[in-house]
Write a structure and sequence with these properties.
single chain; mainly alpha; MetI-like fold; 2 domains; 13 helices; flat; disordered C terminus
């Protein structure tokens, strides 16, 4: 009897170990599969950026000859450096303006009580639900009437349409979760609303601001339709438009090596920002998930 009970316990332990190992194997296999699917396109773009001519259409992971001219040609054949600078200025300006306005709006929506607050908040969010094409003609008339057509900083004004609703909504949610006791103590000390918003609440919102700011930066950095519509000359274009309009010596043949090199250069800043602010991003995404 004792031996049979011991055998049953050993058998149960073995089954649990097998289940645990099977579950771990499935988990690790899924993780590896997801990593490969996510990383391989970028890895292939890097490999292709060092290929040229017929070598581009081979499946070899190692180029027969490293074509550095794909990278140097970007800056020699067109003002790609100016295009990168345009994208940096537009994306950074869009993020700074969006966050500055969103903090004020989030304080009003999250901490102040007024009639129609929820309706106005949902109205702001509903603006982001419209596709870009739906507002394209109206924005074109507005930009042209303001004399901003074919000027790179017109894109800052235009990009606020899809960055502001998102940043306002997210920061308002975080602003509502901040403890009331902090605000009440500041009011008792004689602090103004401006002081409470920017000197007390703003430091507490840093993780949320980094997360929303990075997402707004990525959206502005990668935007194509508005940039194609509102900029005409090559010196005013951002990098997505510059890459899309690339052409080689033969107008019927696209310079795929140069396009891959440009794509790699454009993606590297985003990867660097994510790696630099990854802790803040995780803190911003998980803040408010657990209360108490």
């Amino acid at each position: 009897m004792i031996a049979s009970s011991m055998d049953k316990k050993i058998l149960g332990i073995s089954k649990n170990l097998i289940k645990k190992k099977t579950g771990n194997l499935f988990l690790y296999s899924s993780a590896v599969f997801v990593v490969i699917v996510c990383i391989f396109p970028f890895l292939w773009a890097i490999i292709s950026s060092f290929k040229k001519g017929a070598d581009l259409f081979t499946t070899s992971l190692i180029p027969q000859k490293i074509a550095w001219e794909n990278y140097t040609g970007l800056f020699q054949e067109q003002p790609f450096g100016i295009n990168i600078l345009n994208s940096i200025c537009v994306a950074c300006s869009t993020v700074l303006l969006s966050l500055a306005l969103s903090v004020l709006a989030a304080y009003a929506f999250g901490r102040c009580r007024f009639r129609g607050r929820e309706t106005l908040l949902f109205s702001i969010l509903s603006i982001s639900m419209f596709p870009q094409v739906a507002v394209l003609s109206g924005m074109f008339e507005l930009v042209q009437s303001l004399g901003l057509y074919n000027k790179v900083f017109s894109l800052v004004f235009v990009y606020m349409i899809f960055t502001l609703p998102f940043t306002i909504w997210v920061l308002t949610t975080f602003m509502k979760d901040l403890p009331r006791e902090i605000e009440e103590a500041a009011i008792l000390e004689g602090a103004s609303k401006f002081t409470i918003c920017f000197k007390i609440f703003l430091p507490l919102l840093k993780p949320a601001m980094v997360t929303t700011g990075l997402l707004a930066f990525i959206a502005a950095w990668n935007e194509f339709l508005f940039a194609l519509t509102f900029t005409l000359s090559s010196s005013e274009r951002t990098v997505p438009v510059a890459i899309a309009l690339m052409s080689g010596a033969d107008q019927h043949e696209l310079p795929w090596g140069n396009i891959m090199a440009a794509s790699v250069l454009v993606t590297l800043p985003l990867i660097g920002l994510v790696l630099l602010f990854q802790r803040k991003i995780v803190a911003g995404l998980t803040a408010g998930a657990i209360k108490g």
